[in-house]
Amino acid sequence: MATRRRVLGAGLSVVGAGLTGVSLLPVLNAREAGAVPAPGGQAAAAAERFAVPMPIVPVLKPVSTADGTDTYEMTMRSQTKEILPGLRTELRTFNGQFPGPTIKARRNRPVVIRQRNELDVGVSVHLHGASVPPEDDGGPMEVIAPGAERVYTYPNKQPHAGLWYHDHAHHTESESVYRGLHGAYLLTDDEEEALPLPKGEYDVLVSIRDAHFDTANGTLQYQMGDRSRTTLLVNGAPYPYFQVAARSYRLRLANHSNQRFLELRLEDDGEMTQIASDGGLLPRPHTTKAVYLTAGERADVVVDFSRYPVGTKLVLKNTGFAAVDDVSQVMRFDVVRTAEDDSSVPNVLRKLPPLPEPTAERTVVLRMDEDGRPDPKAYIDDKVYDHARVDAHIRAGASEVWTVTNANTKVPHNFHMHLVQFRVLERGGAAPGLEEAGLKDTVRLMPGETVKLQATFDAYQGEYVYHCHMLDHSAMGMMATMKIG
After folding, report:
1. Average pLDDT score, the chain
2. In this prediction, what percent of the chain has a pLDDT beyond 70?
3. Three-state secondary structure readout of the chain
4. Confidence band for 16, pLDDT divided at 50, 70 and 90
5. What is d(CA 464, CA 134) in angstroms, rounded to the nearest whole number?
6. Is pTM beyond 0.90 here?
7. What residues form DSSP beta bridges with 168?
């Protein structure tokens, strides 16, 4: 019987030259499948392991808190930073930071962000996973031109969730996000804060993504479908170490890669307790040894480092989806001290309301050219994205069941809906795993796989997109428009 790991690595033994269907495969388990780097790429990671500390991403302070609204100002601009030792890398940034600063928001307290674009490319800032009016969604055609600015208002009426913001300007979103236009947006509420989970300095964002550097000058190389992104960055630093106390930590794991799939586990195969996914806390904690994250997915885990003696050095590994040995290690936890710990993980984390009776059902088919043609395209329901076309008309207040299928035989995808968090009902005809028991906004689809989900459209009316969140695929056209109302 084929193992799950081998199934995930299937079909990746050849790498095409240039932009082909095969080169646009995500980097999964190519080491096992015998894959090689793309022509002209760097086979090795560009940085020494565990030589730099993991940065703590700064939390942005509002410029105003008047009238119950937190107001922020951000400027998107080019910035050079030292990522590889001794080399400077030019990035596209929010406020000159890489990744962008973290925004901490609270349910029912609006956030207003004035975004000014000082880059030489157009951008559209999307708050991924958020329920917002269409004019504030950051749609693919709502572009802020160079030198212009736009104000986004986020009502924050939805429950707690670990969201993130990134560029969404069509055709250029893939490159801009890759070059640095992404950051975390952590929305909390009374329900979450009342739980005795690790807090403060023991609640830590771990933003993971890959990169391909020119090791001669530090330039961040970009090419659609590049399979040579063999340097992993955590909070913007290559393969860092993080000093922890011998106590429990909440680690907010986020895959901010364009394409790479991750399977994260501790080096000793120790247990982690998953407590949240894209849309916030799970109903119950899920004890696991591995966390699977496709591009854009998030998962919060609690790791109890008190089971390790001070002096332990513990690597966080990327196993099932590791392309080559260069990315089989992500970062290292160094247990350096003892500490008091009054945190705990309750047996019940939240109660999700029962799903309403579905009012409609529809099917969605994801597919891209995977036959090696020089100019592949990507489709939803055999159509390339056209911003002037509405692909799904949805009644306001409807609760729909969507059956989403990956029609490819080699290429995995994932599926993201704007505006709504959804519930996964089935995966391959069976009940989803415990890790998918909560609210989701992005879900994986391996070749030939079908996922059934239910979403309720009772918040805002207007046009929103749904798409593959492997950004190279959406930039090629794997995106469609739904109109609610």
Report:
1. 91
2. 89
3. CCCHHHHHHCCCCCCCCCCCCCCCCCCCCHHHHCCCCCCCCCCCCCCCCCCCECCCCCECCCCECHHHCEEEEEEEEEEEECCCCCCCEEEEEECCECCEEEEEEECCCCEEEEEEECCCCCECEEEECCCCCHHHCCCCCCCECCCCEEEEEECCCCCCEEEEEEECCCCCHHHHHHCCCEEEEEEECHHHHCCCCCCHHHEEEEEEEEECECCCCCCECCCCCCCCCCEEEECCEECCEEEEEECEEEEEEEECCCCCCEEEEECCCCCEEEEEECCEEEEEEEEECCEEECCCCEEEEEEEHHHCCCCCEEEEEECCCCCCHHHCEEEEEEEEEECCCCCCCCCCCCCCCCCCCCCEEEEEEEEECCCCCCCCCEEECCECCCCCCCCEEECCCCEEEEEEEECCCCCCEEEEECCCCEEEEEECCECCCHHHCCEECEEEECCCCEEEEEEECCCCCEEEEEECCCHHHHHCCCEEEEEEC
4. very low
5. 7
6. yes
7. none
Within 8 A by CB and 6+ apart from 350, the residues are 191, 192, 280, 281, 282, 283, 438
On the question of pLDDT at 482 being above 60, the answer is: yes
pLDDT > 60? residue 2: no
Q: Are 385 and 141 in contact (CB under 8 A)?
A: no
Q: Are the C-beta atoms of residues 384 and 377 closer than 8 Å to each other?
A: yes
For 339-385, the pLDDT digits (tens) are 999 999 999 999 999 999 999 999 999 999 999 888 899 999 999 99
Q: What is the pLDDT of residues 110-126, one digit of tens each?
A: 999 999 999 999 999 99
Inter-CA distances, 146 with 77, 92, 123, 132, Å: 10, 13, 8, 24
Tens digit of pLDDT for each residue in 423-479? 999 999 999 999 999 999 999 999 999 999 999 999 999 999 999 999 999 999 999
- Bridge partners (DSSP) of residue 291 are 264
